[in-house]
Amino acid sequence: MLQMDAMKISSYICVAILALFSALSAQSIEDKIGDQNDDSIRAKIGNRPTDVSHTLYTGTYGTKFGLFALQWYGGNKVRGSFFDSTNSKEVRLYGDNSVQGRILMEGWTNGQHTGTGPITKSKNVYGLSWSGTIFYAQLLDFPVTMHKYEPKGEERLTSTSNYSGKLGKTNVRISLNWYANGRVRGQYTNVNTRKSYDLRGYNYANGKLYLDEWDSHIGDVEGGVVTARITLSKVTVNGRVQWQGRMFNMDKRNFAMSFARTGSTGTGSSNKDELEKKLR
Fold this sequence. Notes:
Layout: H1 2-33, H2 41-45, E1 55-61, E2 64-73, E3 77-84, E4 90-96, E5 102-109, E6 112-124, E7 127-135, E8 141-148, E9 157-167, E10 170-179, E11 183-190, E12 196-205, E13 208-215, E14 225-237, E15 240-249, E16 254-266, H3 274-279
Antiparallel strand pairs: 1-2, 1-8, 2-3, 3-4, 4-5, 5-6, 6-7, 7-8, 9-10, 9-16, 10-11, 11-12, 12-13, 13-14, 14-15, 15-16
């Protein structure tokens, strides 16, 4: 009798585990396709990579200060992410800009809808700004302020730096061109597969770096599409300058990323780390 009861309990546990696994799998699939069956702004816009660079804004989301990276395309579509100053957390943003000077914006965290609200455009001492509030159903609200980053100065190449590091568990080699106005362009290569991806972005503040990953191996767009957002901070580890942060892919995977200089060419580079420490 006890043996039969044990067998029944084991059977119930197996059924429960299978049901849970099925539910999690369904949620994972739903999350990846962007909830195509709902009427959210996210479902209308989706996460398909496009050939549009991100526009950068510094500001706040709720109580957190950080960086907004937004793509404006398709006439009235806006999508992107907010990254807090630690580079560890991402809020996905999807907006409808059908009304000029106004975005109806949704926030999504870890696949969950965390609020919707209007953001309006204005000009002030910061230049072009957006502000508003994203309201959550449980009476929470997230004040939002975004100040557009504008590169300043001459777009003149100042140096080229080579790095080695890790993307997740993968070894990568990276080469970056640094420009006087903050623009950064380059490429990284997977050491194992030899596959390379273009990098484009800005050293938008001292010790802060944002890069778009461009993949020319997918899609039918000449020059490739943006497949990931990368946000990095400069740190010193054992006296050596490193860039550390995360890569957030459009398909919602994300990986830790870190790299350190292996060599450089350019003006004033007698000490390999000196330029990096002082100017970036």
